Amino acid sequence: MNDGKLKEIVDKITREYIAELQTIPVGVSNRHVHLSKDDMDKLFGRGSALHPMKELRQPGQYAAEETVDLRGPNGSVIPKVRVLGPIRPESQVEISAADSFKLGAHAPVRESGELDGTPGIELIGPLGSIKINRGLIVAWRHIHLSEESARFWNVHDRELVFVESDGPRGCILKNVLVRVSQNYRQELHVDTEEANTTGLKNGDIIKITKYGGQTDEY
Ligand SMILES: [Zn+2]
Hints:
By secondary structure, the chain is α/β, with parallel strands linked by helices. Helix content is about 20%, strand content about 35%. The strands form 2 sheets. Strands 2, 3, 4, 5, 6, 7, 8, 9 and 10 form a 9-stranded mixed β-sheet that branches. Strands 1-14-11-13-12-15 form a 6-stranded mixed beta barrel.
């Protein structure tokens, strides 16, 4: 192989690699539930396990066949809310602001896992119902990035950024939380209401346009 041919191949691979790091697709999250082992046992029976139905873009994450109903403080029920796997150390319920209103709950905008001071909710499964005493949130919109992709975009874990989309309903979203891990693939997560408001759809490509800020400023 001559040097010209080799350079051509290296350039092509480099271009594809950079293009992959640059590409942040939108993933719209519908309301969903993460369950602890204990809560899983109470809702679906002792020793029960989740049945993966559809792999998600984040490695190891999946939508399960299992669903639960949510019952709010005002008695309203939201039926068949999807459980996402795998099992977590603590249960967490992610709903939209409209869901929160419907349930008569006061779910704060929080990042996943930051559950201090969040309200609980009743979960109804096929074999029982439980009231978790915290864990009801409206998920803080966020971007999952691999370490390489974070370096490419020059952002760090827990930074708040702006993202921008193109197209006739192009938008700019402030205060998008960056989460970086070697276990992540780049993806913007917004909920269904944010998606409807902004015109973002699954698979749309967004760009990070501005940096700065931390969630504890809010
Ligand atoms: Zn996410």
